[in-house]
Design goal:
This protein is an alpha/beta fold. It has helices spanning about 5-10, 30-40, 60-65, 80-90, 100-110, 175-180, and strands at about 5, 20, 45-50, 70-75, 95, 115-120, 130-135, 140-145, 150-160, 165, 180-190, 210-215.
Length: about 220
């Protein structure tokens, strides 16, 4: 099965009002070519789920800065002041989730669980509106699992079936995100034939990936220099 397609193919499923989950940390590991495609298509009213809101001009932050998102589910927005401004002006809703909790909620969604139990956030503003569960005499918050209409990830290499290999820190949350989308798009630097990847290096099995697209290059580097 050959899952390789074009950026135009990837845009077919991304529509106004959809939920997009993205891999990456501070812009590193966000799929820039796919994000550029979303900007060019003019999609609006998006719910974005991922570690953070990137930088104003890098990664997922470009969608936020241009007002394309109506809601974020993230662990922080500190690197993108535009996100904070939109939140304070009531133009964008932001749900904060502690970073480890957020990662586990995404993982839970990817493996089909309904949620997770955690004691992180008890007796703080994090617990507001959430159900509490007692197990073996200990109290926990019930955090719902997270899934998305579309998951967009970035990888170093893919074969034509969608098996993915990541490079160092650009791996970050991408493997979890790839599992949690109803339709997963992988932007990659290099595409090879099935059998050319070292099986021991594959992190995301192709069964989780629906479409593989060739990257046009990244725009992360300056952010962390």
């Amino acid at each position: 099965m050959n899952k390789v397609g074009s950026i135009e193919d990837s845009m077919f499923r991304i529509q106004d009002g959809c939920t997009i989950m993205f891999g990456g940390f501070g812009g590193i590991g966000n799929p820039p070519t796919v994000i550029n495609g979303i900007l060019e298509k003019g999609v609006n009213d998006l719910t974005l789920i991922g570690n953070d809101s990137g930088f104003p001009d890098i990664g997922i932050g470009r969608l936020v800065s241009q007002g394309r998102a109506s809601r974020l589910i993230v662990s922080h927005i500190g690197s993108n002041p535009v996100a904070g401004q939109l939140m304070m002006e009531g133009k964008m809703k932001v749900e904060f989730s502690p970073q480890g909790t957020l990662a586990e909620r995404i993982r839970a969604g990817g493996v089909g669980l309904g949620g997770i139990l955690t004691d992180i956030g008890l007796d703080s503003m994090v617990e507001e509106g959430k159900q509490k569960v007692t197990v073996n005499g200990r109290e926990y918050l019930l955090e719902s699992a997270l899934t998305a209409d579309i998951a967009i990830v970035y990888a170093k290499k893919a074969d034509t079936f969608g098996n993915l290999i990541y490079e160092t820190s650009a791996r970050n949350t991408n493997p979890l995100v790839a599992m949690a989308g109803r339709y997963t798009i992988a932007e990659v630097e290099e595409i090879v034939e099935v059998g050319e990847l070292d099986p021991e290096m594959i992190v995301t099995p192709g069964i989780y990936v629906d479409l593989v697209v060739q990257s046009s290059g990244v725009d992360w580097k300056w952010a962390w220099e």
